Amino acid sequence: MTGLSTQPGPVPQAEPGVEPLLRVERLSKHFKIGNALSRKTLHAVDDASFSVGERQIVAVAGESGSGKTTVARVLARIYKPTSGEVYFQGKPLSAIRSRRDRLRYSGDVPMVFQDPFSSINPVFRVSHGIMRGLKLHRPELDKEQRYAEAVRVFDAVGLNPGADVLQRYPHELSGGQRQRVGFAQALALRPKLVLADEPVSMLDVSIRIGLLNVMAKLRDDEGVSILYITHDLASARYVTDRLIIMYAGHIVEAGPAEDVLSRPRHPYTELLLAAAPDPRAPLNVSADADLGEPPRVIDPTPGCRFRWRCPLAIDVCHTVTPPLRELLPDHSAACHVAQADTPTGAFR
Amino acid sequence: MTHTLADDSQGVAGSVPPQGPLLEVRDLSVEYVLERGVIIAVDHVSLDLGAGEFLAIVGESGCGKSTLLFAVAQLLYPPAAITSGSVTFRGRNLVGLTETDLAAIRWKDMSVVMQSAMNALNPVLSVGAQFRDAMRAHGVTSKEQIAQRSEEVLRMVGIDTVHLKSYPHQLSGGMRQRAMIAMAMLFTPDLIIMDEPTSALDVVAQRSLMAQIKDLQRQFGFAVIFVTHDMSLVSHFSDRLMVMYAGQVSEVGRTRQVFDAPKHPYTVGLMDAFPSIRGPRTPLVGIPGSPPDLARPMEGCRFAPRCPKVFARCKTEPPPLYLVDGVDVRCFLYEDGGPR
Question: Where do the domains of chain A lie, and which CATH numbers do they carry?
Answer without folding.
Answer: 22-110+191-340 (3.40.50.300)
